[in-house]
Amino acid sequence: MSRLRPLKPQELNAAQRQLYGQVSGGPRAAGPQRFRLTAGDGSLTGPFNVFLHAPTVGAALSSVGEAIRYGTSLPARLRELAILTVAGHRDSAFERYAHERVGRSVGITEEEMRALRNLDDLDLDDPAEAAAYAFCKQALRKRGVDDAIFAAAAEQLGEQTLVELTALLGYYEGVALLLSVFDVGVPDDPDGVCHAGCDD
C-alpha cells in the first residue's frame, strides 16, 4: 500500500484534473502503451498519483518527464538503457516495471535487463551506448564523472545529448525518490487490462 491514497477522477480539484488530463491524455497515452497509466478505479499509477497530491509541482515534473521521453535527441534504446540504469541504482520497482516493458519494445534484451538490474558490465556493440552506460553508472555512483568518462561520452554523444542524458538521470532519480518515500510499488495487476490504451 502506498502512503498516499489513490486519487480517483471524480474527487479531483481543477488543478488536479488538468494534470490528470496531461498524463492520461498526453504523449504518454498516445500510441502503443507498454505499462499502465491508470488503475481499474481510474486513479493514476506510479509517480503520477504522487504528482496529483501536489499538482503545481506535479505538473512541472510531468512536463519535464514528457520532454525527456519525447523531446530529446536521445535514441530510444539508449534512453531506456539510461532509465533502467537509474532503476537498478535505486532498486526502483515501478521504474523497472514500466521501463523494462518499454525497453523490450526498443530492443533491449533479457540478458541486458538482467545486467542492468545489478549495474553489471554490459557488452554493448554501439560505442555511443557503451559510452553512455559508463557515464550513467559513474554519475549515479559517484555523483559526478571523471575526465576520461566525460570525454568519451562527449565525443560519442555531443554536448546537447550529454546535457539531455544528465537531465534524464536527475529526473528519474527524483522520481525514484518519490516512489521510495511514498512507498509506491507496481500495480496490483501489472499484466492486466490497461485503462489508458495499453497494447499488451
From TrEMBL:
Protein name in the entry? Carboxymuconolactone decarboxylase-like domain-containing protein
- The chain positions of domain Carboxymuconolactone decarboxylase-like read 55-135
Its source organism is Egicoccus halophilus
Name any one GO molecular function: peroxiredoxin activity
Q: Which domain of life is it from?
A: Bacteria
Q: Which Pfam families match?
A: CMD
Record PANTHER family:
4-CARBOXYMUCONOLACTONE DECARBOXYLASE FAMILY PROTEIN (AFU_ORTHOLOGUE AFUA_6G11590) (PTHR34846)
